[in-house]
Design a protein that fits this description.
The chain is mainly alpha-helical. It has helices at about 15-55, 60-65, 80-100. The protein has one domain (about 15-100). The protein is built from three helices and no strands.
Length: about 120
């Protein structure tokens, strides 16, 4: 004989069970958000490190201490086009991370000049 849901003793959930499920769902969303934010910020830091390395002084520490002048028209490693591309990518990552944290991912950025 089949039991119908109407006569089953557990056909409803208590407020506590509903609250636990909602807390678990919210925690899962927060873990997902943290993962995305951490990934975007890691990518931004990687690009920043590449930009920093391309701007590094080509002189040795001894040359710097001896007062050897820095080259006048120093070009970043990879050239200016690659430098600007990485700078633009860094701005894109930072803008995305800001909009992600604000909850406005779907909106176009009005603050960043490169976007």
């Amino acid at each position: 004989m089949k039991k119908s849901l109407k006569t089953s003793p557990r056909n409803w959930r208590s407020d506590e069970e509903i609250a636990r499920e909602e807390i678990a769902r919210t925690n899962a969303r927060l873990r997902h958000f943290r993962g995305i934010a951490a990934s975007v910020m890691k990518d931004a830091l990687d690009i920043l490190n590449e930009i920093w390395d391309s701007c590094e002084d080509p002189r040795s520490p001894k040359e710097i201490l001896d007062g050897v002048p820095e080259p006048v028209a120093r070009t970043p490693v990879g050239g200016w086009a690659e430098f600007y591309e990485r700078l633009h990518l860094l701005g894109t990552y930072l803008d995305y991370a800001r909009r992600l944290c604000e909850g406005s991912i779907d909106q176009q950025s009005s603050e960043w000049k490169g976007g």
